[in-house]
Amino acid sequence: MKYKLNPYKLLSLVATIFFISYVYSVAQQFRNERNQKTAEIVKTIDIRDTKFYTKPVVASTQPVPVVANTVATTELPPTQEVDKAEVPAKTPEQIAQEKKEKLQRELDAKKKKEALKTEKVSRQYIQVATISDGKRAQAVVAKLGPGFRVGVITTKSGKKLYAISSSAFDNKATQQSYEAKIKQVLGSGQQYVVRKLSK
Question: How distant is the alpha carbon of residue 193 from its chain centre?
């Protein structure tokens, strides 16, 4: 039985050897360029070896910036001493004016507070959370105190969920007090939703 050389297999073998040798030469060229660039950089920078603790201390090859030490003395300007007698005392009119301004500021603050209390918003409630455990929901409502309740929601699959929500309100002051209570009891990271009641 004679063995025949297949020219296509021979040609593919030669092409494979050529490709492998080409890739090897490109890799060698890349490695040589990298080593040359690294050597150039190492000449200009001090790089600490891994065995730096066994080598003696070598002076740095980096140029040291020369800064001339100059000692400058600055004289402080003389401070002017003010006698207490020179400071004018407040007149009774000025004191009365200051008291009047203070009372006016307090009245403005009270008016703003009252306006906030009486400011009407549409009827709303706060939905605090939806929990799958009824006992846990009751415990959260007990912590929140009056003004909060638990509602039972049944999903399409028949599972019961317990929604914790506030009582309905129609002014900003009540809303702010409920929000403060939620943040105080459940933490400031607790998210809640303010929902409008349908008419």
Answer: 23
pLDDT value of position 147: 87
- Show the tokens assigned to 174: 């009540």
Q: Both tokens of residue 85?
A: 């007698």
3-class DSSP assignment, residue 100: helix
> What is the CB neighbour count within 10 angstroms for residue 125?
19
How far is 142 from 137, CA to CA, in rounded Å? 9
The alpha helices in the chain, defined as continuous H runs, are 7-44, 92-118, 134-144, 172-186
pLDDT 10s digits, 104-136 = 999 999 888 877 666 666 788 888 888 888 899
- Residue 20 to residue 13: CA distance in whole angstroms: 11
Query: Measured between alpha carbons, how far is 186 from 14 in angstroms, rounded to an integer?
Result: 76
Contact in structure between 152 and 141 (CB atoms under 8 Å) = no
Poorest-confidence range of 19-23, 27-31, 51-55, 150-154?
Answer: 51-55
Cα separation of 165 and 197, whole Å?
A: 12
